[in-house]
Amino acid sequence: MSAVDKAFHGLRHMIATGRLGAGEKIPPEADLCEELGVSRGSLREAVRMLSALGVLEPRHGSGTYVSQLRPEDLIGSLSLTLQLLPLPGLLELYEIRRVLEAHVAAQAAARATPETVGTLFSLIEAMEATEDPTEASDLDHRFHAEIARAAGNPTLASLLAVFRARSRKYQVFTLPEGPDLRRKSDADHRNLATAIAAHDPGAAAGAAEAHVAQTERWLRALEPPVEDEGA
């Protein structure tokens, strides 16, 4: 185990066992280096790694603190690795996504307010009206994010947002088949929003699962290239 790994796992153990609690300032560098048996350079690199994961928060002029350790924030850091997944790896996640999207749709159907329903149909109308694939993708993301928000579990919403962020890099709507696929996708969105508006959890779950499964089939069949970040 390298010195950086030793420092990383040592700090992680302190946090996991509750020795360092959420919002607490970590001990001085000299004390940690002595306890963990590492150099200042190794400790600082471990702190940078944990900060990138949302576990620690360096504060200029004040020191380094343990974050609030909110599940939704820590799950969001998964995007650092999931953004690297090639298409075959992403497709393996679709089985998980189908289950979770169905669950949040059912919860949203049980809890949706008139304001939520109005937002969903407004987003659908905007999706149907635009001819810009990038704008359509953004509206699609907002549509699903609104359903996840209405479900009432920020952790699930964060996890699904990470999944969707990688999925959006593989754009099927920009392919020659794109217009036909978009019409099918828009129809799926209407079915899902209608079930939520009717407060029918079973129908909403079925519509969400079918929609995600359809997207998975398109990705498997068409194998679109990764969208260029600089485009």
Automatic annotation (TrEMBL):
<keyword id="KW-0805">Transcription regulation</keyword>
<dbReference type="InterPro" id="IPR036388">
    <property type="entry name" value="WH-like_DNA-bd_sf"/>
</dbReference>
<dbReference type="InterPro" id="IPR036390">
    <property type="entry name" value="WH_DNA-bd_sf"/>
</dbReference>
<feature type="domain" description="HTH gntR-type">
    <location>
        <begin position="1"/>
        <end position="69"/>
    </location>
</feature>
<dbReference type="InterPro" id="IPR000524">
    <property type="entry name" value="Tscrpt_reg_HTH_GntR"/>
</dbReference>
<keyword id="KW-0804">Transcription</keyword>
<keyword id="KW-0238">DNA-binding</keyword>
<dbReference type="Pfam" id="PF00392">
    <property type="entry name" value="GntR"/>
</dbReference>
<dbReference type="Pfam" id="PF07729">
    <property type="entry name" value="FCD"/>
</dbReference>
<dbReference type="InterPro" id="IPR011711">
    <property type="entry name" value="GntR_C"/>
</dbReference>
<dbReference type="InterPro" id="IPR008920">
    <property type="entry name" value="TF_FadR/GntR_C"/>
</dbReference>
<protein>
    <submittedName>
        <fullName>FCD domain-containing protein</fullName>
    </submittedName>
</protein>
